[in-house]
Structures are given as C-alpha cells and as structure tokens.
Specification:
The complex is a heterodimer of chains A (about 475) and B (about 250). Chain A has one domain. Helix content of chain A is about 25%, strand content about 35%. Chain A is built from 11 helices and 22 strands. In chain A, the strands form 3 sheets. Chain A has a 10-stranded mixed β-sheet with strand order 4-3-7-9-11-13-16-18-20-22, covered by helices on one side. In chain A, β3 and β4 form a beta hairpin. In chain A, α3 packs antiparallel against α8. Chain A is globular and about 60 Å long. The relative contact order of chain A is 0.12. With about 250 residues, chain B is α/β, with parallel strands linked by helices. Chain B contains 9 helices and 12 strands. In chain B, the strands form 3 sheets. Chain B has a 6-stranded mixed β-sheet with strand order 6-9-10-3-11-12, with helices on both faces. Chain B has a 4-stranded antiparallel β-sheet with strand order 2-1-4-5, covered by helices on one side. Chain B has a two-stranded antiparallel ribbon with strand order 7-8. In chain B, α6 packs parallel to α7. The mean pLDDT of chain B is about 90. Classes of the chains: A alpha/beta (about 475), B alpha/beta (about 250). Chains A and B meet through α9 and α10 of A and α2, β7 and α3 of B.
Amino acid sequence: MAATEQTIKQVNTLGSSDYKYGFSTEVDEIRPPKGLNEEIIKFISAQKDEPEWMLEWRLNAFKVFNKLPKPQWAKLNIPEIDYQDCYYYSIPKSLKDKPKSLDEIDPEILKTYEKLGIPLKEQKMLSGIAVDAVFDSVSVATTYKKQLSDLGIVFCSISEAVKTYPELVKKYLGSVIPVSDHSFAALNSAVFTDGSFIYIPEGVRCPVELSTYFRINAMNTGQFERTLIIADKDSYVSYLEGCTAPMRDENQLHAANVELVALDNAEIKYSTVQNWYPGDKEGKGGIYNFVTKRGACRGKNSKISWTQVETGSAITWKYPSCILQGDNSKGEFYSVAITNNMQQADTGTKMIHIGKNTSSKIISKGISAGKANNTYRGLVNILSKAKNARNFTQCDSLLIGNQCGAHTVPYIESSNSDSMVEHEATTSKINEDQLFYCQQRGLNSEDAVGLIVNGFCKEVLQHLPMEFAVEAQKLVAISLEGSVG
Amino acid sequence: MLEIKNLHVSIEEKKIIKGLDLSINKGEVHALMGPNGSGKSTLSYVLSGKDKYEINDGTIDYNGKNLLELDVDERANEGLFLAFQYPMEIPGVQTSFFLKTAINSKRKYLGQSEMDALEFAKLMKSKAEELNISTEMLKRDLNVNYSGGEKKKQEILQMSMLSPKMAILDETDSGLDIDALRIVSEGVNKLRNSDNSFLVITHYQRLLNYIKPDFVHIIADGKIVKSGDYSLALELEEKGYEEISQTA
C-alpha cells in the first residue's frame, strides 16, 4: 500500500477517541437557564459583582448584537446557531466564594488541570511560566501573582480587573475591537465571562511567560473569553494561551475577544496553541471557535507578533490582526492551521498600515487531511499616510490525501505609491518519495508524516516560546496521525 | 544474508524483472552491473519495499525472514539500507536531527533506549570527518541545496551511522567527481567487515576500482546473464554490455 494511502487509512481508522483531553470533570455547577436575554446578562454581571458601568456596557453590546447580521465572508459551512439553546454561564459551585488559596479549590478541578499537564500547585509549577486557568466561565487560579506584582505587573482575571483596575479597563476595553465590529464581537461584549488581564508598566520587561489555560467542561455551555493586554511604553511581554475541551456529541460555542495595546517602543508576543475538541471523524460534535483577536500598535516603534498553532475545533474562524498606527511599528503573524477529517478552518490576518515606515510579515502554513477544508484569508491594507510601508506574505498549503481542500484568499489594498507588498504562495501534496525515504531510514509512516509536516511548519513553530515548541511539534504530529486535529 | 530466488516483478503490467536469482553471504560485496532499463534500480526498490511494484513470483529470504512480508521501516530497522540514487530533500528538517531520528527509530525497534545527545554528537562528528562533511552542512536542512556530490556523501554518512547488515548502493557513483568518488569509496571500505554485505549497483567499472567486489553480476532484461569475479567487470569494460550478454 502506498505510504500516503496507509497514512490516510490510519488517520481514518483512528477515530477522534485519540483526543486525549476528551475527559470531563464531575463538578456541581451554578448555571442559570438556557437562553440569551437581558436577564441572563444581568445575572452574569451580578454573579461577578460588577460595577454598574460594566453592566451598562454589556447591555448596550447586547442591543448592538441584536441588530447585526452574522458575518458571511468566510468559506465555511456554519450551521444555524440557536443562541437561545445555549447556556451562557457555568461555574463550579465550589468556586463561587472565590477560594483564597489552592487548598480551598475543589480537588476535582485541580486534578483536571494536572491531567492536562498544567499543575497549579506551587511546588509543581512550570518554571518560568505564570499561569491563569479558566474553567468554563471562571478563572480558577493565577500563579506567580506576588512575584509579578513586585514588578508592578498586573496579571489577573478580567473579572478581577473590572473591580480592581476599573480605569484601565474602561480606557482600553473595546478600544481595539469596537462592540459593533461584527455580531460575534458584540455577543462576546454582552456575555463575556472570564479571561486574562495583563498590564505591563512603563519600562518593565516581563521576566516570565504569562499564560492562560482555557478549559470548557460543562455541557451545552458557551465560553466567552475576554482578554486584554496592555504594554505600556518601553515594555515587553510574551503571552501564551492553550485550550482544550471534553469530547461531546453536540457542538459548543467559543466566541472570544482578545485585545492588545502596545504603546511607544513596547512589544507584545502572543502565542496560541488551540486544541479544542475537533469533533469525531463524521463531523459530529466539536467546538465552534469564533475568535476576534486584534492588536493595536498605538505607539511609535511598537511591535505585536501573533503566533498560532490551530489544530482543534470543528470550525475555526479567526483572524488575529494588527493595526499599525504608530510610526515604525511592526506587525507579525505566524500561523499553522491543521484540519483533518471534517474540520473547517478559515483563518488569516489583517495588517492595517496607518503610520509611516510600518512593516508587517505574514507566514501561514495550512495543512489539510481527510475531508477537511482549510482557507487562508488575509488583508494587507496600506493607507495613504503610511509612507514607506512594507509587507511580506508567504502562504503555503500542504495536502494529505485527495479529498481535502486548501484555499488562499489574499486581499491587498494599497493607497500609497511608496509602499512595497510581496505575496508568495505555494500548494503541494505530501510527497510519496519523501515518505519512502524516511521509512527506508527506519521511521514508521506516522513518524515520517510528523517529521515532514513539522519541517513544513518550522518557520512558524520556531516563533513559539521554547517551553511550548516541543509540545507543539508533538501536537502537529498527533493531529495528523490520530486525527485529533 | 540475502537469497533471491526466481524473482518476477512488474510495474503497471510491464514486466521488469524476469526470473532473477541472487545469493549474497555475510561479508561479501557483490556488484550488479547492467545497461539502462535492465532492472537494476527496480531490484533495489523491491528489496527496500517501495510500493507500486508487483511481485509476480519468487521468494526473498533475508536472514531467515521472508523479506517481502516486512514493511519498509521494518526492513530498514532489520539492517537493510538503501543508498538512494536520488536522495530526497526534506525542507525544514535539520540533517543532524534527521540522523538522530533515524538512529533512535532503529534503537526503539530493537528495544534499546535512545542514544544520549553527547554520544550521538560524538558519533556524528567522527563519521562526518571521515567523509569530509563539514559540521555546517549537518545544520542545514536535509539535502536541501546540497550539490549532487554532497547528497551522495550524506547517504554514505547515514549508512555509516546506521551500520547496516545489508547495504544497497544504487548508482552512488553517478554525479560524483573523482575526489568525491574516492572519499565515498573509502567510507564504504571502512564499513566492510565479515558480518555485513554490500550490493553495489553501477553502470561503470570505475567505482569497482575503489570498492573491490567479491562477485560481479551482469543483469540484462531483468535477469542475471553472467556472474564472475572482479575480472568480469574488466572484461565488460572492454567488450561492452551487448557482446557480454550475447556470449552469456
């Protein structure tokens, strides 16, 4: 049997039972009834003890949401979503009274994170990484808080920030992604539950990786993550998020809004390893991942770099973008998107050049297997004031088997004659002879595919923080051999 | 070591190998010579297990095992090595990483623990020096932007690091200049011992000046038409394939 054929067969026979994060945790939950209405929004806000201004902001967003149609541009087959048939809030009862220390947290929840390889107990903490863990709608624990606060760095859940740092939240929340941007953004603004808040003060270089681990546990529950990162003048931060969910037959919604703001000379590096449950091989179940991520390079010489490894979710709809306002600011987007079986991904970026001498770089690697469809969609927009702007885009697609699809949809708009925009794109099939060569050197067919695909993604993976690069390489291989992603 | 009996192979209905017999014992070096299209490369692919070739008849015994029942990687891990005529480029995969992966795949198959980083680095360095391969080259992506000669040297490096029991060299001499030919041959000669065997496939007698075979076989139209010792290669050089095949 041809090696590729064999691999495809393997991928097909191994069901999604190989999704090793597919377990669920038994915990008592606090959960209002299904449905989306003002009462639910008031309930969420009250549960979180939010100030009045926050509730008003949410209610306004809900009004906007009701007026906006669902975005239609993506090459995705998105089933009609019944927003009334979904829970918008779910937290383990034991977390209601905000445990003061890890000893007060339900051991079942701590066990969940240990199983996921994210120990929250201090003595087992990952060295050099501060973690915020979000379980359904609530932040469980944030590690390394004390060490960070000595430097003036704020790293806490967004719920806590609303109460403790209202001025910063008021100033920046919704300033990068307007509530009215599109309906998913408005929905998130109305019902967002938890996520991380980071503020790096002027002149501080954050000494550790900051990281959030998102876990969806409860059934029929949407997760509406909201993250806000502000890097003040001359500061630096590197942030990583990871995501998993149990295997369930019904689809679950994850609609996140992530906003980044970089002031003069500041740099934000944002990495994602997204491994939500992708559904089974017939396409049953899985997470609908509708994510709006946008960074504003507000200050001169600022830089925002997005790196994403997208292997999970039934549907991925995601365009981490950069608004390059400050002169000499830089935006980067490095992406690996793997789709297998019936997964669909429509992902890419927008680079909006506004300031002078702004530059952007886009490296996208799409891998499709099974019957999956994978689209790169990107916009490079150079406004007339963006003198001397530069962009380089490279989109490579790799196909495994003959039932999958790869699509590249780049938009380039330039209103300025000094700017330079380059676009390179390739599409290739995994090469039979390369596989044979690797196997002749003793690698089995799965390892051979993993090796070749990792080679194909190398330019992107090397931008991940070191601690995660190895994990990501394994994930890339697993996604294809065991049809996880 | 290797016992091929009455082998018949076709590809897409076309018969390529038509009743080939060949027996290679431990410690022997056999040279297989023949004109284009005679079935030389097909034999190397059939032995290493490439698909698309249909085995119509015959048996291949490899150290007491039915070779045809083993997967490509099993054959490799059982010590069968093919030095490719056209080695593949693998972008994004560092040469040293590839070597390490190959060595550890074999160790895993044999139930051994992974080679530790230091031991591996030492082994790679000493073997690379023997072949005049720079450490800079080992950092580059496997075979990407290598010259023809560099690719062939890389094959021999992989061979010497994996120290196979049965090595097949498929036209390793093609594309090599005289210096590279000497270095590659020395690499092969260093590896020769009483426990391993080589099948050297070539068009030209030149390579056999450097790698002295114990036996020389001439293949024509899918069959071995004449076998002999080293002198047969010299005779071939003088008379050409056509005459030798006819006198057979």
